[in-house]
Structure formats: structure tokens, C-alpha cells
Design brief:
37% helix, alpha/beta, 14 helices, 12 strands, seven-stranded mixed sheet
Amino acid sequence: NGTAMRFETLAIHAGPPRDPAFGAVMPPIYQVSTFAFQGVNQPGPFDYSRSGNPTRKALEDTLAALEGGGLGYAFATGMAAEATVLGLLSAGDRVLVHEDLYGGTWRLLTSVVARHGVTVDFADLRDPAAMAAALRPETRMVWIETVTNPLITVLDLPAIAAAARRHGALTVVDNTFLSPFFARPLDLGADVVIHSTTKYLNGHSDVVGGAAIARDPDLAKRIGFLQNAMGTCCGPFDAFLVLRGIRTLSLRMERHHANAVAVARWLAQHPRVAQVLHPSLPGHPQHALATRLYTGFGGTFSFRVKADAAGIARMLGAVRTFTLAESLGGVESLIEQPWTMTHASMDAAARVRAGITEDLVRVSIGLEHPDDLTADLNRALAAI
């Protein structure tokens, strides 16, 4: 009974039963575009890989099991997942979005979705009164992240979802930063959970992908229809890689979290660091809320440096163990400046309004020894 399994077991055994053809222990890669009909007007369970593929279905079933959802869908990229879910909206609808969010999502909302007649409203959803004031009769969706990117804010998901539901709006939650190992948004009231599977779910920086999971069968089927109609699905080899990554998710997330806590505590004592934004720290504004909602806080967080732009550039150029690169969630540690990198697509006024300023540095803490990571950061901070 898969529903009774603990997460660690589910991550390894969720999905379809063992391959019926040859008994392959892991789902094989069905690298095919089309499937033979069983007879005239008699399609088999799969007919064309855009509409469905056995390898992709193995991943989708696993994702649904891990998030506690009814149906899961796997996409070519995280942005493909987002675009497909946003395809649930129609001209005249409004979507309410927390103002601190991934720059690529901001670009999709403001440069693409808004051109199709959907109004995008940004608000500080930490404040219930601000959310209530921002909800309009036409609001059909509220969009948040379990831990915001890049300011690592934790929102009161159950309260937001309850308010959205009373208003008749869907709550969509991007769970990329925490993964289902630390957060289960559907259990907290969300209607749809999305992921960039590129990040922790895959965990090895060798594939890009996305996911969407919904518990309500009608809503899930609408997402499935859009996936097929828009052609945003992921390919079988990418699905195989993400599924392989998921098998070790629990072990990796434990180490990511432990390393991140160690590095965050070290940074909090450094004289060149003004603020460390990791929910595990008692000084984090939402420490108590995060501890109540989630079982851990992942390996990605941000901190503010006491330096001007030139000093921060010297720091970023001095790392050796960390890699200066965008993305997160891989076994290797990455460092980046949201102002000039991941959030450069946001206009400057929007960045400043959200609190994304030049002194902010984001790190994805990998699986290296934490002493090596702090030594590298110490050398880099000395370069300021």
C-alpha cells in the first residue's frame, strides 16, 4: 500500500510496477515518438509521446505520490510547467502574486501572460490585510512560493490558501526550493504545486524540467489537457534522469539542509555579512512560521554583504569551491548575485520594491564538506 509508505521508501518505490516486458528494476527509457495501435480504432495505453509516454508517466506518478496529489505532469522546463498552469487563466482574469519571486516567473507574468488579457497584481502577501485589499472579483489565481526566491520569505500558506478559496481563486505554490521532502503544499491547502525539477528533484545539474501536481481530478485533467494541447511535456530521457535523481532525494535533502544551516550560522558571525536569510536561524522574521509549516528549509538561501558593487564583484570572482552560476539544487555549491543574474529580467524598480538589492548574494549549498565551503566563503569575503 503506497499511501502507507514513509517518504524515503516512497521516493524509491513510487510509480508503476516493475517493467512487465523484461522485469527491469528501474523504469526503462521509452525513447520513441509513436506507439502501434492494437487494432483499427483500438489505441493502446499510449499512442504518441506528446500525449503520453511510459517513462514520463513513471515520473509523473512518482511526483504525484511524493506531493500527495492525485495526478502529476512533467514538463520540458520549469517555465513550461508555469506557462501551462497559467494557461488555466482566460482574458479578463486576474492573478495575485507575492512581489518577491523568481525573476523568470516575473518575466513570464509581465511580458507574456499580461499580453493575453490577464491582469497581474503584485502585493506583499505577508500581510493578510494587503492580500484582502488586493483580491478583486476577477482574481482567479494566487501565486506564491514555499520559500521565496531570492529573499527566503516564508508566507502563511494555509491562511493564504483559505482566503483564496473563500474568494473562489486557485492557490498555486512553487515548491522548488524545499521539495516534497520538506514541504507538502497540497496538505496545507494549495490547489496546484509546481516545480522546476531541474533543481532538487533531479539534483545533479544535468537536465532541465518542470512539474505540476494537483489533487482535484477535474483541475488535474485541465492541466493535462493543456500539457497535450501546448506540447510542453518533457522527453523520456529527461524524465528518466529526474526519476533517477528522485531515488536519492531524501538523503540529498538532509545533507543540503545540514550543510546550509552550518554555513548560514557561520556567515551570521562574519563581520562582512549584514544579514543572513535562512529560516533555521532564530532571527529570521518567519522562523516560527517556517518551523510550524515545514520539516526543513533546504539548501538555498541569501545573505547581505557589507560592500559596494565593486567589492561584491571581487568577492564573487574569488570563490574556488563555489561556482559562480545561476540555478540551484545540484550536488555542487553555487553562488550568484540576483541583481545582475537570476533577477536581472525584473525591472530595477520592481527589484528594489521587493527588496532585491545589489548587496544580496544567493547561495545553493551542495553536498561538499561544510568546512570547505566556509573556508571558500572566508577567502572570498576577504577579497572585498
